[in-house]
Amino acid sequence: MTDTLQRGSARWEDRVKVWDPVVRVFHWSLVTVFAVAYFTGDEAETVHEWAGYAALALIALRLVWGVIGTRHARFTDFVPRPTELKNYARQVLRGRERRYMGHNPAAAIMILFLLLATTVIGVSGWLLTTDWGWSSELLEDLHEGAVNITLLAIALHVGAAIYESIHHRENLIRSMFTGYKRAGK
Ligand code: HEM
Ligand code: HEM
Questions:
Q1: pLDDT given for residue 13 in this prediction
Q2: Which of 31, 76, 89, 114 reaches 20 to 30 Å from 52, CA-CA?
Q3: Is any ligand 2 atom within 6 A of the Cβ of residue 133?
């Protein structure tokens, strides 16, 4: 599915549609509601809780889309087998990792982690509002601990996206907005 842009310029390369609109809207919506929930953790209870529930709803939608969505949105397209992940890690250490059109194996593991960790944050937050859980310090620690671990993971996630962008001479962050990536190797 390659469409060549014919504008008479060598700078217009072949490009491939990789991320469908569901993936793109999901990603930037999740970033937005995560940030809103994070910055309202201390006050604005209603906004905080609804942003958190919105994160859970987005994740539920993404899990379904991971089964029925377009090619690179599917978990079967990017969740790696252990040997594939090991090989990729070796390639990264040698600075010679291959380029993937969809998510690379390391990105895939990070993505699964972010989805899981955000779910833990959302569910523990909800439990903190119930009769059963409101006084539990354990839940409070889980909620806030999971937030802090997720922040670290996000820093790594963004750092890796920048690193891979430089390494493969393409702007992966822009691709998450436009849906397109450079064709070829
Ligand atoms: C401004 C900060 C962020 C930037 C620049 C960013 C960038 C990206 C990029 C470039 C990708 C595609 C990676 C690839 O090409 O394989 C991606 C995927 C993803 N990111 Fe982020 N990200 C950010 C924040 C977050 C946050 C806060 C979360 C979750 C809490 C998150 C969760 C995800 C997920 C789940 C995917 C997979 C998308 C999908 O397949 O649906 N990201 N991100
Ligand atoms: C992505 C989702 C979420 C993020 C990033 C997040 C973040 C945070 C943060 C940073 C705090 C700590 C505030 C502080 O003590 O300084 C907090 C506390 C809290 N959050 Fe969330 N939260 C999320 C989802 C939710 C949800 C879905 C609910 C409930 C429906 C919720 C309910 C609470 C409650 C009740 C507290 C106060 C706990 C306490 O007394 O320490 N959160 N959250």
A1: 63
A2: 76
A3: no
25-74 pLDDT, tens digit per residue, is 999 999 999 999 999 998 878 999 999 999 999 999 999 999 999 999 99
**Residue 91 C-beta-side C-alpha neighbours within 13 Å:** 16
Instruction: Give the residue whose CA is nearest to atom 4 of ligand 1.
Output: 158
Mutate to test the pocket of ligand 1, among 31, 34, 63, 101 (most ligand atoms within 8 A of CB): 31
Domains of the chain with CATH codes: 19-182 (1.20.950.20)
Mind listing the pLDDT tens digit for each residue in 105-146?
999 999 999 999 999 999 999 999 999 999 999 999 999 999
CB 127 within 8 A of CB 57: no
**Average pLDDT score, the chain:** 93
Cβ atoms of 185 and 17 within 8 Å: the answer is no
- Give every CB contact of residue 107 below 8 A, 6+ residues apart in sequence: 78, 157, 160, 161, 164
Cβ contacts of 160 within 8 Å, gap of 6 or more: 106, 107, 110
User: Does any ligand 2 atom lie closer than 6 A to the CB of residue 122?
Assistant: yes
Specify the residue for token string 């962008």: 165
Q: How far is the CA of 171 from the centre of ligand 1 (A)?
A: 13
